[in-house]
């Protein structure tokens, strides 16, 4: 296997391990409500507070990604992830659990900015969409096996065991990364004068096209976070399913995400990232309409699987657009700004959606999310005419 390809797949496997816990926290919201005696608003803090930690880490992670060899940042993300999981498995206090999940979100910021900026430098432009699709497919696979194993542990030993179970391979992989060859990037190879020049390029990152893109991303994240945070709570409280069954249904989404990620890479390569996003956003909106209007559980599950497919298909074109709309020497900073906006929205949305559900009904998370996704699709349209 060529050296560049080996580096690429090493990053992808790291992404798989990182995403194992990504959806477990929100899937466990009904369990946390019962075990810690929480209200829906209080339970939303398990999504909000960790996202704030990730938000604060995004810009420092972008700074580090352009200056430190990627393998050390990937190693750090794995060690923080694994140790946090061990700490969560032992806590009996909800706020210590939130702190442990927050440490996991810090590791996510370190990984995503260093990993994606590295891929954008390793891969040729004409293969960017397909490569991002493969990267996201491995992440979806990690989230899928995490949720599948959660449904097994909920039915047997309890939720805490899943944090112990996955921490071992994650920590082992971290030390495999530490012993791997150097991942050379433009940030690690450049001289000091080049780094000084890059550090002064912040205004150039904020082109009109990139700013429009960030506004659209913000709207998209409001819509998606409302659904992802409270989907299992909806299934348990409104549809009367058990926590294990709700977790199992929720876990089918990332399996669809594997196909979706590959589909997003293929569509982006064939028709361009912008046109692919328009189609995929429309698919998300229509599938949520099916979810909102479904009276039968099989139709609801079908709508959710379609939504998961289209939602995960969008990640590859989105990541490609960050690379398309910015310069190579600013890639770490560009991805950090991208994740900064995403993290800010993910942080504030759960309590807002919980408040809407609390004053109305849990079902209203669907029109809440649909409205913001429609707004996102509208804001995306000027990108046809803007250039970086």
- Helicity, in percent? over 70%
Order of helices and strands: HHHHHHHHHHHHHHHHHHH
Overall average pLDDT: 82
Name of the CATH superfamily: MFS general substrate transporter like domains
Which regions are unreliable across 5 or more consecutive residues at pLDDT < 50?
A: 185-200
Counted by DSSP, the helix tally is 19
User: Could you give a short account of the major beta sheet?
Assistant: none
Query: How far is it from the N-terminal to the C-terminal residue, by CA?
Result: 35 Å
Number of domain units: 1
Question: What does this protein structure show overall?
Answer:
- The structure is a single chain.
- Residues 185-200 have low confidence and may be disordered.
- It is built from 19 helices and no strands.
- With 388 residues, the chain is mainly alpha-helical.
- Helix 5 (45-65) packs antiparallel against helix 18 and helix 7 (94-122) runs antiparallel to helix 18 (331-359).
- It has one domain: MFS general substrate transporter like domains (Growth Hormone, Chain: A, Up-down Bundle).
- It is globular and about 50 Å long.
């Amino acid at each position: 296997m060529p050296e560049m390809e080996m580096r690429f797949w090493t990053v992808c496997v790291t992404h798989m391990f990182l995403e194992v816990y990504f959806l477990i926290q929100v899937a466990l919201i009904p369990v946390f409500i019962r075990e810690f005696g929480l209200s829906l608003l209080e339970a939303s803090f398990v999504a909000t507070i960790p996202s704030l930690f990730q938000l604060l880490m995004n810009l420092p992670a972008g700074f580090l990604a352009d200056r430190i060899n990627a393998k050390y940042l990937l190693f750090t993300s794995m060690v923080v992830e694994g140790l946090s999981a061990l700490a969560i498995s032992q806590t009996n206090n909800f706020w210590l659990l939130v702190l442990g999940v927050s440490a996991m979100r810090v590791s996510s910021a370190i990984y995503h900015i260093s990993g994606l900026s590295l891929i954008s430098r390793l891969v040729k432009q004409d293969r960017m969409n397909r490569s991002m699709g493969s990267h996201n497919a491995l992440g979806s696979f990690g989230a899928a096996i995490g949720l599948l194993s959660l449904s097994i542990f909920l039915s047997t030993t309890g939720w805490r065991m899943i944090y112990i179970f996955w921490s071992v391979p994650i920590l082992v992989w971290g030390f495999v990364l530490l012993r791997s060859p150097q991942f050379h990037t433009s940030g690690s190879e450049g001289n000091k004068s080049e780094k000084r020049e890059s550090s002064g390029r912040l205004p150039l990152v904020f082109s009109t096209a990139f700013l429009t893109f960030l506004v659209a991303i913000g709207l998209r994240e409001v819509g998606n976070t409302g659904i992802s945070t409270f989907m299992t709570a909806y299934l348990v409280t409104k549809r009367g399913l058990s926590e294990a069954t709700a977790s199992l249904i929720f876990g089918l989404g990332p399996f669809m995400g594997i196909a979706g990620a590959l589909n997003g890479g293929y569509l982006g390569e064939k028709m361009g990232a912008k046109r692919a996003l328009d189609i995929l956003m429309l698919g998300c909106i229509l599938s949520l309409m099916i979810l909102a209007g479904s009276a039968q559980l099989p139709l609801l599950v079908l709508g959710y699987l379609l939504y998961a497919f289209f939602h995960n298909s969008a990640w590859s074109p989105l990541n490609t657009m960050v690379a398309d709309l910015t310069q190579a020497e600013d890639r770490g900073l560009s991805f950090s700004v991208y994740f900064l906006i995403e993290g800010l929205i993910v942080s504030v949305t759960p309590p807002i959606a919980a408040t809407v559900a609390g004053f109305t009904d849990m079902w209203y998370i669907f029109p809440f999310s649909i409205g913001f996704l429609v707004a996102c699709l509208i804001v995306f349209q000027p990108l046809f005419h803007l250039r970086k």
